[in-house]
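dumping this here so i dont lose it
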């Protein structure tokens, strides 16, 4: 059974913040964590990155402040006072956000490599069958063998290229500890 990393983090946040308080704009915050590195952000930077222009209003700004506070209290953000303005905090992502982003990147890498492996494997199978068929034609009709040698060589080159790509993907999968199946 697959459990989403977002679900795990939500459970951790709820465990940490054992009250009726939850993370407002939950999905938008986690989309933000995937896309951007949070380093010394003021609350207004969160507002501009979490909310679209049509959602920026006083009520939603308060929700963002609340969300930042939940994330801070649960250890997902660190904060320090802005040296230029002591009334303003600067927030930086903590290790759980770094880990979340790394996990999402690894999931994307795995998805891309598996999709490419499937595509290349399918192409390799098709080209192999075509190459066998061309060889059979040459044996069955020796009088046209010379004319289809060029086509056979093209297929063999394509097979070689596909095999090379497949080997590269296998090495990348090994590097990222991804199983082939």
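and the seq i came up w/
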């Amino acid at each position: 059974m697959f459990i989403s990393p977002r679900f795990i983090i939500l459970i951790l946040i709820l465990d940490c913040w054992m009250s009726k308080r939850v993370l407002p704009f939950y999905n938008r915050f986690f989309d933000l964590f995937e896309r951007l590195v949070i380093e010394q952000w003021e609350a207004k930077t969160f507002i501009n990155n979490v909310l679209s222009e049509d959602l920026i209003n006083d009520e939603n700004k308060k929700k963002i402040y609340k969300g930042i506070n939940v994330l801070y209290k649960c250890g997902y953000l660190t904060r320090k006072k802005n040296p230029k303005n002591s009334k303003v905090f600067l927030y930086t992502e903590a290790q759980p956000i770094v880990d979340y982003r790394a996990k999402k990147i690894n999931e994307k890498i795995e998805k891309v490599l598996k999709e490419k492996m499937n595509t290349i494997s399918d192409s390799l199978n098709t080209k192999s069958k075509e190459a066998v068929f061309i060889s059979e034609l040459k044996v069955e009709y020796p009088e046209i063998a010379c004319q289809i040698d060029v086509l056979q060589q093209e297929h063999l080159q394509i097979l070689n290229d596909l095999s090379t790509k497949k080997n590269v993907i296998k090495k990348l999968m090994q590097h990222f500890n991804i199983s082939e199946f």
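Residues 95-140 form the longest helix (46 residues).
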